[in-house]
Specification:
Helices cover 39% and strands 17% of the residues. With 147 residues, it is of the alpha+beta class. It has a three-stranded antiparallel β-sheet with strand order 1-2-3. α1 packs across α2. Bound molecules: FE2/S2 (inorganic) cluster. The site of FE2/S2 (inorganic) cluster (FES) has 10 residues, from α2 and α5.
Length: 147
């Protein structure tokens, strides 16, 4: 089968879908090639992600990736969310087809964008290199992402 049962489950029954009106951080990213857009909302108390929601206008793998990403970081310290990699999302989903790996990259980037927004809004200083947003800091090549 092309997609694992976990991918199908998170695609059919995505966790944490929606919007947080009074979010402490919001991240929106898009993929210029496929045109998909992902938005993640964070609620943070005492440095813990107490609530997280997402909206994804994109493919099934992007929906499954964002659903899994939110599950992986909900209840975790905000600093741990920054360590979430697309690889961890793919592993938790029991794999994605190679041409769908970029969908999981979108989830990683959306989480990072939301954390960055949280830090910016609250005047919390951070090491810009901790964020893989933008090609220069990113460990994978665009060719790999879009393969
Ligand atoms: Fe664009 Fe999946 S095809 S995120």
């Amino acid at each position: 089968m092309l997609y694992s049962e976990k991918v199908m489950d998170h695609f059919r029954n995505p966790r944490n879908v929606g919007k947080i009106e009074d979010a402490d951080g919001v991240g929106e990213v898009g993929n210029v090639v496929c045109g998909d857009i992902m938005r993640i909302y964070l609620k943070v108390e005492n440095n813990i992600i107490t609530d997280i929601k997402f909206n994804t206008f994109g493919c099934g793998s992007a929906i499954a990736s964002s659903s899994m990403a939110t599950e992986l970081i909900k209840g975790k310290p905000i600093s741990e969310a920054l360590q979430l990699t697309n690889r961890a999302v793919v592993e938790a989903l029991d794999g994605l087809p190679v041409h769908k790996i970029h969908c999981s990259v979108l989830a990683e980037e959306a989480v990072q964008a939301a954390v960055k927004d949280y830090y910016d809004r609250h005047g919390i200083s951070y090491d810009p290199l901790a964020f893989a947003i933008g090609c220069s800091a990113c460990e994978h090549t665009c060719e790999e992402e879009l393969a």
